[in-house]
Amino acid sequence: ADLEGEPCDEGEYRSLIGGLNYLMVMTRPDIAFPMSKLSRYLNKPTELHWKAAKHVLRYLKGTKNQGLFVPKGTFKGIELWADADHGGCLDTRRCTSGNLTFYNGTLVSWRSKRQPVPSKSSRLEKK
Q1: How would residue 113 be classed by pLDDT, with cut points 50, 70 and 90?
Q2: Which of the 8 DSSP states describes residue 73?
Q3: Rounded to whole angstroms, how far apart are CA atoms 71 and 24?
Q4: Rounded Cα gap, residues 66 and 77, in angstroms
Q5: 84 close to 97: Cβ distance less than 8 angstroms
Q6: Residue 58: in which H helix or E strand, if any?
Q7: Which 3 state secondary structure label does DSSP give 44?
Q8: How large a percentage of the chain has pLDDT more than 70?
Q9: Is residue 49 a contact partner of residue 41, using CB atoms and an 8 Å limit?
């Protein structure tokens, strides 16, 4: 599971994740998914989580010319997208859902939320 492995320095990990989260909210929504996953392990991060966070840094370095951009032009419409993973976290069995809002083809709003209670099976038990 995600909680196994050699622990890393919590202070350094929290500092890195905090900085990446600020960057994500302000200009880089493309890293929202990995940041939602990495933010779950602020209390007991492992070397695996540290390496994943460093991978995000390498991604940002390679895509430094990308970010939020709203072009001028005619109105093309609004698109809304939503998805959920239905108990995708193996450690907690909690569902993560999210949505995206595009205006004129440009992402203007996004949200990702981990549900407060574990997912339960919809199958009826036989007695």
Answers
A1: confident
A2: S
A3: 20
A4: 23
A5: yes
A6: helix 47-62
A7: coil
A8: 87
A9: yes
Tokens 């209390």 identify what position? 43
* Cβ contacts of 12 within 8 Å, gap of 6 or more: 50
Q: How many residues are there in the chain?
A: 127
Report the alpha-carbon distance of residue 68 to residue 107 in Å, rounded: 7
The helix/strand/coil state of 75 is coil
* 49 contacts 35 by C-beta, under 8 angstroms: no
The CA radius of gyration of the chain, in Å to the nearest whole number, is: 18
| Assigned token pair, 80 | 């809304």
Taking the C-alpha atoms of residue 121 and residue 85, their distance in angstroms, rounded to an integer, is: 14
Contact 115, 96 (CB under 8 A): yes
CB atoms within 10 A of CB 2: 16
Structure tokens of 79?
């698109």
Read off the pLDDT of residues 5-21 as tens digits, 9 standing for 90 and up: 899 999 999 999 999 99
